[in-house]
Amino acid sequence: MGRLSRLTAGCAGLAVAVFGTTALLMSLKGAPPDGFLADPAAALVPAGIALVLQAVPVVSRTAGRVVHGLAALLLAGAVVLGVAAFPRHAAASIATLLAIAVLVLLGQLIRALVTADKRQRRLADFTDTLFQSMNEAVMVTDANYQVIDVNRRWRELTGHDADEPVRLDPPPVPPAGGGDWMLPRVDGGAVPVLASMAPIPDEEGAPRAYVATYVDIADRKRAEETLSEKAAELERGNARLRETNTRLEAALTFKNDLTSMLTHDVAQPISSIASLAELLHADWGDLPDDIRLELATKIDKNTQRLIKMMNDLQLLFRLDMGSVTARRAPVPLHEVAASVVAASPAGPGEIVVEMGDDVTALGDRAHVVAVLQNLVSNAIAYGNAPVLISARHLGDQVELVVQDSGQGIPDELLPNLFGRFMRGSGLGLFIVRHLVEANGGSVRYEHADPHGARLVVTWEAAPV
Questions:
Q1: pLDDT at position 24
Q2: What is the pTM of this model?
Q3: Handedness of CA 177, 181, 185, 191 (dihedral sign)
Q4: Which domain does 155 fall in, by range?
Q5: Is the same domain home to 361 and 281?
Q6: What one GO molecular function would you report for this record (predicted)?
Q7: What pLDDT was estimated at residue 76?
Q8: N or C: which end of the chain has fewer CB within 10 A?
Q9: Domain count of the fold of the chain
């Protein structure tokens, strides 16, 4: 990891710590303050310092363990501070904890980059050493092929002493018809090698001596295998680094989308509840009963909306972790549809159910209810009444359809229709897709005739 990358990461951590300190000091200017542990901004200070520590270069393994251990303790403290502030500042605490999660991923990326950089340097050093210490046998001979200088490896292979006069007879020439050169031994044998001959010319250009370089085939093969293993190990490290980088990019995108949703969709009902409650508290004695009931009803409506968002977020996190499992059993769709219609805030006649009492799907009842609730809510929020709920048997499958009478969904939105944060809070159709797939089904969108949107869910039919 280069100095610029370390400097960038360190500056990012320092900026987070400074931002957290500034936000904390500003929030504590009240009279009286809520206390240090009541503000989620306090969690950003140790989290930023932890990122700075992870970007600091270390020269020894012991120092690295101390630095990374201290960074881990700071991150744990940041999480504790974020959780401690949750009762007073729920939305800000969630956003702060997500920011800490991003900093943890960034720290892991820094460590992965440092590890990959060290491995690459070790491989480069190993390669240099390998080729410098390659078991080559070099001989310098005169014009009569009298050996006048030999190195250690040549003596090891042939059994000659350092100062022993040796005459190569016959002289080293390329093997007839190709093949390996043979290095003569004292005992009359030979060693198959890869070799080259380079003449040393005199002043008139005639060869006065020769330099013969021999490389043991077995040594070269072992070196190539070792180098190949090192290259494969480096490629595996790079693959892990690319995977970590992909996860980090996905986490950053998710954090940005979630922060945007919390800022707009969650803040709106909280603000409305606070305003209405303040109005009731201040003017309770002056308000007639019907106005009190209307304000209390609005508070309850916004509270239920906020509770649904929090439940959807909790379910979203469980889906991301893969901890949602389906306990499938026969589910009567007409009964489920009737309960969803009864609980819906839509007026009489806005939702119509057309299906027989015998249409039964195989699935987790709670998942089926959640799917139908989200589809109906989506149709009411973005379409027009009436909303039609229908179901029918198609062989060994059951097709459940929720159709509104609106303008339909624009074609440019269809590729990401069932993704996160798509329209409004953006969680409804994303949750629908995952819950349906967890029960072995599928969901798709169709244009309604003559206009409107059709969300079609296919379940496995319950056995008769």
A1: 63
A2: 0.43
A3: negative
A4: 136-222
A5: no
A6: kinase activity
A7: 76
A8: C
A9: 4
